[in-house]
Amino acid sequence: MPKKFRYFYLVEAEFTVEKRMHGQARTAFGGETRSMNRIRRTKGFTLVEIMIVVLIIGILMAIAVPNFIKARQGSRQKTVIANLKQVDSAKEQWAMETGQVGNAACSSTDLYPTYMKSWPDNTPVTGTYVPNAVGTAPTFLGKDQTQWATDPSGL
Known about the structure:
Distance between the termini: 93 Å
Shape: rod-shaped
Radius of gyration: 39 Å
Strand order of the largest sheet: 1-2-3
Mean pLDDT: 81
């Protein structure tokens, strides 16, 4: 066999088509089988893949956590303002029905249970709602509803 053809024949014989059938590979020419010790079957994730997933989760958390905290604070602020409006409304109804005029003292026992179904004790923010006198705004932690609307600190 001439040299040129001999070299081509050797390269061609070494070329294999790997078929994963019962852990063996067939050569392209000759149909011989040999074991596939060189083929590695790995299960699991590489370190780089795991690090990329952790990085993506970290980025999502950096975006989500501040928004969640802001939403929770806004919800608490709106709850306090709504409770103060409810106390003020009940106080005005009490004053009209009992004939009270400006600066008449009012307490939570005057308003609950007749003018309010429940007194706002179990709110997300701990503190005491004070109805104050007729003609003045009720307060929570020393602030009325307009102060809570402009300054939500303390929630």
